[in-house]
Design brief:
By secondary structure, this protein is α+β, with helices and mostly antiparallel strands. Helices cover 27% and strands 34% of the residues. The strands form two sheets. A four-stranded antiparallel sheet has the order 2-5-1-6. Strands 3-4 form a two-stranded antiparallel sheet. β3 and β4 form a beta hairpin. The termini are close together. The mean pLDDT is 90.
């Protein structure tokens, strides 16, 4: 089962050990085959909408900064509970904030 985990930006300064702990966590998940992809996202982006034959492109940002998505991880695990445990471990490393877990369907 694949899950997309997203995290929202925070306004607190990260702990000085964050990068070391996160690198170790990412390395562990990658080596075990759980982590398929990860990355940070630009705060703006482009919105592409269609109505009939008309395609409209609008520059972002589109939401308040605290509601945007700052980063993501795509993981492959055996169950929803395992995805939740990965998210819990991530939150323990990065501290206060919010993440969302969504199952990814399809091939």
């Amino acid at each position: 089962m694949r899950y997309l985990m997203t995290t929202r930006p925070t306004d607190h300064t990260p702990d000085e050990n964050l990068h070391t702990e996160m690198a170790r966590f990412v390395e562990e998940l990658t080596a075990s085959g759980v982590l398929l992809a990860t990355g940070g996202l630009e705060p703006g982006g482009l919105r592409v909408t269609s109505t009939g034959d008309e395609i409209t492109v609008t520059d972002g940002p589109f939401t308040e900064a605290k509601e945007s998505v700052a980063g993501f991880a795509l993981v492959e695990v055996r169950s929803r509970e395992e995805a939740l445990e990965v998210a819990r471990r991530f939150r323990r490393i990065v501290g206060d904030g919010e993440s969302v877990i969504q199952q990814v369907f399809g091939p």
